[in-house]
Design a protein that fits this description.
The protein is an alpha+beta fold and 361 residues long. It folds into 3 domains: 60-135; 157-217, no CATH class; 228-346, no CATH class. 54% of the residues lie in helices and 13% in strands. It has 14 helices and 9 strands. The protein has helices at 10-13, 18-32, 48-83, 92-112, 118-134, 140-156, 165-174, 204-219, 223-232, 242-246, 299-303, 315-320, 326-338, 340-360, and strands at 160-163, 184-186, 189-193, 237-239, 251-257, 260-262, 265-267, 270-278, 286-295. It has a 4-stranded mixed β-sheet. Strands 1-3-2 form a 3-stranded antiparallel β-sheet. β4, α10 (242-246) and β5 (251-257) form a beta-alpha-beta unit. α3 (48-83) packs antiparallel against α4 (92-112).
């Protein structure tokens, strides 16, 4: 009951016992396991000999992984060489050797793919990458291997990243114009090595990778010049045939673009490949389609196959066409630079014709 002031009387609280309530609550929690402490198990520390033996075994596994990477490369190369041999399938020796290579490779990969070998697998991948970089020489195949395999793996592992020109400019501005050790250029892009946060240091593996990449980059030829030579060897290409090109003779044309200065800034030279083709089969109206390019014209390769084409070599007319990208105007300008000798020769012939006409009169 309540008294006149609205406060409960003693009859309402006479059955309340705080200590009994606490014990009852604790019992309920014990039944639920809420306050049960985990049993402390006996822990036996490893002896010095056991630690030494474990460290020795770990070192052996690491050394094994460092050997497996190059071994996988050799096995793959062996299979490729056999497959490239004419009529290899008719040779018992080559068939037997190919099977042996493939079985050895399968055995190694099967072991590495076990869940417990995840760290071992990562180290094998790293050793294989380093072995690939060390094998790079100055030939075209090495350049293709860097583009097809090495750079994608560097980016996928996070050990390197591709920087934009703006990022490179910001870095140079903050570091006296210098790139970090281990950075390298390839196909017009700059690749930066992993940069640790403040207070962290690069691993020995990262240092090794950067060292090998710097040495390999010195061995590799200029990829732009190599690509230029490769483009010049395209089947059926017509090199620097300006007159035939301006007459819209159907075919693939390659032109050397000379270096030039624009407002005091030197623009490098390059090589561009374009195709003269009818708008559609049987049409008499011909257009110029981008094919590929290197050096100053490296942008052409990115635009090849996109379906845009030029009907005029006037950069002003091209820029007025809202359906064409900025690269179309650049291509028109570069083609004009490449055709400058043809234009000059035409001008000379016109002047000679005019002089002869005056003589005839």
């Amino acid at each position: 009951m309540s008294n006149r002031n609205g406060v409960q009387g003693d009859a309402d609280v006479s059955g309340f016992n705080p200590l009994a309530e606490a014990f009852e609550h604790a019992g309920q929690m014990r039944q639920k396991g809420g306050t049960t402490l985990p049993k402390i198990s006996d822990v036996t520390e490893l002896s010095a000999d056991e630690l030494a033996a474990a460290a020795h075994a770990a070192q052996k596994r690491k050394e094994w992984a460092e050997k497996v990477g190059p071994q996988l490369i050799n096995l793959d190369r062996g299979v490729r060489e056999i497959l490239a041999t004419p009529n290899w399938e008719f040779s018992e020796l080559l068939v037997s050797q190919k099977n042996r290579f493939e079985q050895e490779r399968g055995k190694l990969l099967s072991f590495l793919n076990r869940p417990e070998n995840a760290e071992l697998r990562k180290h094998v991948s790293f050793s294989r990458l380093v072995a690939t970089i060390r094998s790079l020489t100055g030939d075209q195949e090495s350049l293709e291997l860097v583009e097809r395999s090495v750079i994608p793996e560097l980016l996928a592992t996070g050990r390197y990243t591709a920087l934009s020109s703006a990022d490179v400019h910001r870095w140079r501005s903050a570091h006296a114009g210098k790139l970090p050790r281990g950075a390298f250029r390839f196909n017009g892009k700059v690749y930066f090595p992993y940069q640790p946060q403040d207070g962290q240091e690069k691993s020995s593996a990262q240092h090794l990778l950067e060292h090998e990449l710097v040495k390999a980059r010195r061995r590799l030829p200029d990829e732009r010049e190599a690509k230029r030579r490769k483009l010049k060897e395209l089947p059926g290409i017509r090199l620097n045939e300006g007159e035939a090109f301006l007459q819209r003779s159907v075919g693939v044309y390659g032109f050397d673009i000379p270096a030039r200065k624009v407002r005091g800034r030197k623009l490098p030279g390059g090589f561009v490949v374009v195709r003269v083709a009818p708008v559609r089969k049987g049409a008499s109206f011909y257009v110029i389609r981008p094919v590929d390019g290197t050096g100053r014209a490296s942008y052409v390769g990115k635009e090849a196959g996109k379906g845009w084409y030029l009907t005029s070599l006037s950069p002003r007319k091209v820029s007025e066409n809202e359906h064409l990208p900025r690269e179309a105007e650049l291509l028109a300008r570069d083609l004009n630079d490449a055709l400058a000798p043809v234009y000059a020769e035409r001008k000379k012939l016109e002047e000679l014709a005019a002089e002869c006409g005056e003589c005839d009169e």
